[in-house]
Amino acid sequence: MKNSKKFLCTLLAGVMTAASVSSLAACGDKTGGVGDIVAYDGSAVTVTFYHTMGANLQNVLNKYIPKFNEMYPNIEIKHDMMGDYPALRDQIAIELTAGNSPSIAYCYPDHVALYNKSRSVLTLDAFIESDKEVTKADGTTEIMGFTAEQKADFIEGYYAEGTAYGDGKMYTLPYTKSTEVLYYNKTYFDANNLTVPTTWEEMKEVCEAIRAKEGNNVVPLGYDSESNWFITMTEQYGTPYTSATGDKFLFNTAENRAFVKEFRDWYEKGYVTTEEISGGYTSKLFTQTAEDKLKCYMCIGSSAGASYQCPALATRMVNKLDEQGNPIQAKDEQGNLLFEEGKPVYEQVEEQYYPFEVGIAQIPQVNKNNPKVIQQGPSLCMFKKKNSQEMAATWLFMKFLTTKVELQAEVSMTNGYTPVIKSAQNHPVYADFLSKADGNAKLQATAVKQTLAQMSAYYVSPAFSGSSAARDQVGILLQNCFLKQPSANQSIDAFIEAQFQTVIDTLNYEYSF
User: Fold this and answer.
1) What is the C-alpha radius of gyration for the chain, rounded to an integer number of angstroms?
2) What are phi and psi of 308, to 5 degrees?
3) What's the pLDDT score for residue 2?
4) Are strands 104-107 and 379-382 parallel, antiparallel or unpaired?
5) Residue 94: predicted pLDDT
6) pTM, full prediction
């Protein structure tokens, strides 16, 4: 979606126009509220849920929807996979221009900032604090809102993301979270006495060593997201990126241009590649084992994608062993022991094995004493609706998705996401899952353990109309600074500054209204 900025601006203008004439104005105020919250009364209502789940996560969702319906049989849940996150964002923006929307959707903060221009997103504070009771199918009751225990159960940093919109109100709830981690070829590192880099200076040294040993058939480091890389570096250096107030696009600074210049040099020396430059996720290079194919020995990618960082199982012939663990000597048809050149011949069987072992660590830092790692993964937002019972039912479903311990645990075990509630870590099945986080067969669990170990390092960027475009544009900026060349008589510094200024001018032009 790199070329969608003007498209989104047009959509946004349409959304704002639609909001001014739609009935949303009748049910919502300027702060995103809907007046008094009503309790769900058992009415037949349909809740629509837009998301980006693949088949495995949809299977988990489909398993738990009937459990929700055991409590609320008259709430029908319809869910649709909308492609990737930009496609989801654009689909909802299109629907908002016509005054439509799903009931609930996966979201990132910059998506919500876009939708908020039409005041279409429902603030959740009144639901969270509601003590109104709702009756379940078995006759028992629960309050609409969160109990004190449920609120305290959320991991604080994940929960706080919902208020990152400048007005102190809660717009989202965390659903499942991920981050970036450093995957490395532990087998290669051990064999070559390499130390896993903890800083970018150490990363440069490791890349130099690998490149010197392996030559042009290896790019030591793959970084999947150019946007994440740029934004994370501004966080690690403490330099400007964007702001939700005043001047919004602040990243054209000497410090930021300096780290881009440094990484351009890495690229030109063959130390690093990225998703867009390499033509796909760099996990394809990381898991490559063919001797004549380009590969990398480190990859920075999503913790939720751990399964894609594991090399495919290979097959080899090994000696068959007896009960005591000794090789079984082969015999001919007459029962005579077989020998070749005086040496025993052993029976062999096929064995599957991983070509190399994968290790997982925190991404390199500028300052190890003040680590910064991106917080990502979907949250949930609700949209205003004329039907108060639809909103009440949607809230109950959102509450179920975020507080159901078994569901949170199973999503994590299925796809490597981190649960957003602390109690999931104490669930017996999930605790067993984490305890076995060792080796390639348990790589997803290993990734989750790393995400839990770096909780204090997570950051979230400001969310506002244009923040999504800024993410896209700084990714393109990094690509351009790597791939393009200065014009005649133009210095590298002048070239890089011109690339920065072009992006700033583009963003200011497209989001100046």
Assistant:
1) 26
2) -80, -10
3) 40
4) antiparallel
5) 94
6) 0.85
Q: Is 50 left (phi over 0), alpha (psi -120 to 50) or beta?
A: beta
Cβ pair 196, 189 in contact under 8 A: yes
- Tell me which residue has tokens 């290669």: 188
Give the start-end residues of each E strand in 44-175: 45-51, 75-81, 104-107, 133-135, 141-143, 173-174
Tell me how far apart the terminal alpha carbons of the chain are, to the nearest angstrom. 22
Query: What's the confidence (pLDDT) of residue 455?
Result: 86
| Residue carrying structure tokens 């949209």 | 383
How far apart CA 493 and CA 11 sit, in angstroms, is: 37
pLDDT (0 to 100) of residue 462? 85
pLDDT score for 7 = 46
Distance CA 446, CA 358 (A): 10
> In a 3-state reduction of DSSP, which class is residue 169?
coil
Cβ atoms within 10 A of the Cβ of 322, count? 10
Which 3 state secondary structure label does DSSP give 185?
Answer: strand
Residues 271, 277, 278: CA angle, nearest 5 degrees: 80
Distance CA 443, CA 303 (A): 10
pLDDT at 406: 97
Taking CA atoms, 278 is separated from 217, 267, 481, in Å, by 14, 12, 15
CA 298/CA 283 separation, integer angstroms? 9
Positive/negative CA dihedral, 199, 201, 204, 210? negative
Regions of the chain where pLDDT drops below 70: 1-36, 512-513
Q: Cα(154)–Cα(173) distance, rounded to whole angstroms?
A: 10
What DSSP assignment string belongs to 329-387? BPB-TTSPBPEETTEE-B-EEEEEE-SS-EEEEPPPBS-TTS--EEEES-EEEEB--S-
